[in-house]
Amino acid sequence: MKERKLRAELVAAGARLARLGLVRGNEGNFSARLDQTSFLLSPRGRFKGALQAWELVRAPLAGPLPPEASSEGLLHQTILASHDQVGAVLHAHPPAVLRLLRLGRRLDAQVLRETSATLVPSVLEDLPPGSWELAMAAAQAVGESNALLLPRHGAVVVGAGVGETLALLEALELAASLCLVGLP
Q1: What is the 3-state secondary structure (H, E, C) of the chain?
Q2: pLDDT 10s digits, 147-183
Q3: What SS3 state is found at 163?
Q4: Containing domain of residue 62, as a range?
Q5: CATH code, domain with 21
Q6: pLDDT tens, residue by residue, 22-39
Q7: Which of 46, 112, 122, 148 is most buried by a 10 A CB count?
Q8: How many independent structural domains does the chain possess?
């Protein structure tokens, strides 16, 4: 995919995440694979709902990340470098997901037919944000899951492309909302 188009998709995803309330303020981050050696990543300390395409950071799949890269850049880099089939990674702080985790409740992807067919969630340990431990645990979990629930830190969703990954994140928040209201 051409870089210009991929940048536009990521900017649109950031705007949608903000409109839906899945990221607020400067929180959240997202990335997409450019080629075999690099990826685009949201910058640190910026409101993701109003990013410009030129602000996205081009980062290597191996080696040090640029200083302007997101504070969760290592998580994105490690997942993308470990899984060739992953084309996009979105990390957000969906309120229903966070509440479900805080209450110690389980997310049941079977709550809807649509989510049972596409969503494969797993809960990770409560690891420090931006840490090597979180990046490694996430990359390992992506081998079996496409939706990683992070206690006190939100969710990381992976997919083949930006649109697919965004749809999975929205489905995850819907499933969490339904689990909170106690639907069977």
Answers
A1: CCHHHHHHHHHHHHHHHHHCCCCCCCCCEEEEECCCCEEEECECCCCHHHCCHHHCEEEECCCCCCCCECCCHHHHHHHHHHCCCCCEEEEECCHHHHHHHHCCCCCCHHHCHHHHHHCCEEECCCCCCCCHHHHHHHHHHCCCCCEEEECCCEEEEEECCHHHHHHHHHHHHHHHHHHHCCCC
A2: 999 999 999 999 999 999 999 999 999 999 999 986 5
A3: helix
A4: 3-180
A5: 3.40.225.10
A6: 999 899 999 999 999 999
A7: 148
A8: 1
